[in-house]
Amino acid sequence: MPQEEKRLFVDMVGRLSWETQLHLDERRHHFHINKIFIVIISILLIVLAAVNVYYVAVLYEDLNGIVDSMDSMHGNMQKVSSNMAHITDNVQEFEIHMQHMDSIVASTGAMAAMMPAISASMQQMDKDIAVMDTDMGKMANGMLHVDQRFKHMTQGINVMRYHVREIAHPMGSMNPFMP
Predict the structure, then answer these.
(1) The domain containing residue 23 runs over which residues?
(2) Which positions ≥6 away from 143 have C-beta within 8 Å?
(3) What digits encode the pLDDT tens for the residues 53-67?
(4) Overall domain count for the chain
């Protein structure tokens, strides 16, 4: 009986050894599969990182283009604003000249007494000058409003340019990492 127990014990240890080796082989196989998956996922992550860096570089260039356009637009709006101020000044000077037309109307009144044929024409001229004076006043006010609106537009562009630069600033810090 001790021989049989030995043999049973040897068989049991043999089976246990065989199952342990089978388990180790299966484990090694699964580790190999996991290693392949990790390498593939790592390669995909590297490709995605490269694509993201490319998109950040493109975004940075686009934002720089937007800022340059905003700078150009700001310069052009300042030129337009100064031109509008010049036009407003000219309209105001024209209105001052129109106010001197009153003395001409008074002088032509004396001529109307001497020349009845001219009187009717001068009266019509007086009405036209009054309408022109009113229209020039309205035009001067309109030009002031236009000038104010251009100033508001210029201020809005300044704010937009500031915010675009604020957005583009973090992109500039990534410049050393870009290809």
Answers:
(1) 2-177
(2) 84, 87, 88, 91
(3) 999 999 999 988 888
(4) 1
